[in-house]
Amino acid sequence: MCTGASGGQIERPPPRTPQHLVAGQADLPSPKDDQPMHKVLRRYPRYRLMEPIPVMWRQGRRTAIDRARIVSLRGLLLDTLHSLTPGENIEIVLMPRKMKLRATATVRSVPHKAVAGLEFIRMDGAAADSLKSFLAEALRQKQARLA
Question: How far is residue 111 CA from its own chain's centroid?
Fold first, then answer.
């Protein structure tokens, strides 16, 4: 407990542990112990897909179809040759295996010209569940190929 500016008691939240950071991800496989610590502590682990998935996006009057190879439950890395500016909101449609998952995303980073990091800011529950099951299935298939 701490004393606030008004003299009242303020209770501190418990410290964050890896169990708190991966809560709600019980049905997705956990990262391996031999991975670097920054990947283990991710709240939403990234999954490198064996085959890129098409992503159709629209921002204003611009539309394009690009690909994503790295996807998580909260965002993706978009392989694109189009210029995107950090902070822009774009409407996207992920198209894995004949599904169409609609979302609104914000451009968070553009590390170089051919890649843009997107964070999902709006996605309905059914699309989020479909994405979660797609990522779990893709990971199982990748592990089966590597075994």
Answer: 16
> What is the pTM assigned to this prediction?
0.69
Distance, CA of 113 to chain centre: 20
Query: In whole angstroms, how far apart are CA 130 and each of 63, 76, 102, 126?
Result: 24, 15, 11, 6
- pLDDT digit string (tens) for 49-75? 989 999 999 999 999 999 999 999 999
Tokens of 38: 């920054």
Ordered structural domains, the chain, with CATH: 1-45 (no CATH), 46-146 (2.40.10.220)
Tokens matching residue 105: 């995303």
What span, in angstroms and rounded, lies between the C-alpha atoms of 36 and 98? 34
CA distance 101 to 121: 14
What values do phi and psi take at 5, rounded to 5? Answer: -65, -30
pLDDT (tens digit, 9 = 90+) per residue, 85-117? Answer: 999 999 999 999 889 999 999 999 998 889 999
